[in-house]
Write a sequence for this structure.
């Protein structure tokens, strides 16, 4: 199964290029026009990106997270998320490298095949770094108000953690 | 966010430590920018080629039953919808690196047609929610890591992971749909 994912990118590019040859598109000049567009788009979002990534880093280092997760421990117990997993599932939404470190800790402390280890793996595999995605994508727009977006994204993450904790009891 | 993080840090760990972490954060964002720029450039180039030979239109037609339901008919056949379709297919195939630049272009296109630029449009919110739940069919990096840590059956987690992603995706999109109704 791993092979499918690792071949998808080369295959994707090959198909596009073959199609382009077939339809006699000027590949070189379209690639350059498109590349320039991408470069402009990237340049526009850099300042916002730097500010947001730095802010997230500060926030996750400030320890506000641990305070937050201990506060919510009772609620999560009710939802069936094990206490050992909680810091990971909170961190998963905030920082990719941070949650990877948590994940590593969990796997070396409990075995990867234990219930805790499996639940952690499913959480790692099934959700994205929500706040990172939010900041990168909104950096590309002029929007100042995100409306209900953060709430819905986090609700999705929470659902992921709950479902992961539940499903792993059966395997 | 910057302010609160900085205040809490200076308070709990002293000013020196706070500055250290601040610099670390800035460096991290720099690394991100450095990796992002060439990737964006490359994929935008590839996408331009794909546009020219009509692949984008085909993909967006294939995905249209799904996207029409999620975003509503008003976005049908717009530039933004083509970008969104490409981003979703990249996510499905597990091409994380390619998905981000495509997603950014989709956001730009949505921004261009947003009637209220200061407020995120419905389609933007829906698109972000989809991307944060990002449906991934093969969690290859997690599987690789598990076997590295000595797991007996590293790919045990495949099926639960896919099911969990789908549930998270449904929870996110359905709640976004509900919120759409109630927000002005």
């Amino acid at each position: 199964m791993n092979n499918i994912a690792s071949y998808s990118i080369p295959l994707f590019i090959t198909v596009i290029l073959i199609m382009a040859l077939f339809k006699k598109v000027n590949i070189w000049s379209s690639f350059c026009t498109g590349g320039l567009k991408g470069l402009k788009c990237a340049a526009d979002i850099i300042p916002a990106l730097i500010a947001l990534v730095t802010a997230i880093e500060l926030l996750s280092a400030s320890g506000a997270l641990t305070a937050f997760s201990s506060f919510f421990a009772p609620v999560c117990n009710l939802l069936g998320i094990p206490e050992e997993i909680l810091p990971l599932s909170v961190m998963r939404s905030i920082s990719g490298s941070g949650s990877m470190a948590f994940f590593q800790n969990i796997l070396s402390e409990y075995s990867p095949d234990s219930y805790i280890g499996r639940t952690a793996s499913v959480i790692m595999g099934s959700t994205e770094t929500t706040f990172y995605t939010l900041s990168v994508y909104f950096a590309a727009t002029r929007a100042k108000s995100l409306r209900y977006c953060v709430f819905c994204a986090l609700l999705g993450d929470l659902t992921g953690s709950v479902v992961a904790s539940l499903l792993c009891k059966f395997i | 966010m910057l302010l609160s993080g900085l205040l809490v840090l200076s308070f709990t760990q002293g000013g020196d430590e706070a500055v250290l972490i601040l610099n670390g954060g800035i460096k991290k964002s720099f690394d991100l920018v450095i990796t992002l720029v060439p990737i964006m450039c490359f994929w935008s180039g590839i996408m331009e080629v794909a546009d020219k030979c009509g692949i984008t239109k085909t993909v967006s037609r294939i995905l249209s039953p799904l996207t029409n339901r999620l975003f509503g008919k008003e976005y049908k056949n717009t530039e933004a919808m083509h970008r969104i379709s490409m981003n979703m297919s990249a996510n499905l195939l597990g091409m994380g690196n390619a998905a981000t630049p495509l997603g950014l272009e989709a956001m730009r296109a949505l921004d261009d047609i947003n009637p209220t630029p200061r407020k995120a449009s419905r389609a933007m919110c829906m698109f972000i929610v989809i991307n944060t739940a990002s449906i991934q069919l093969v969690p290859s990096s997690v599987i690789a890591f598990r076997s590295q840590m000595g797991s007996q059956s590293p790919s045990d987690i495949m099926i639960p992971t896919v099911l969990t992603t789908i549930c998270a995706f449904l929870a996110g999109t359905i709640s976004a749909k509900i919120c759409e109704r109630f927000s002005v």
Notes: Chain A touches chain B through 95 residues (CB under 8 Å). Chain A is about 80% helix and 0% strand.
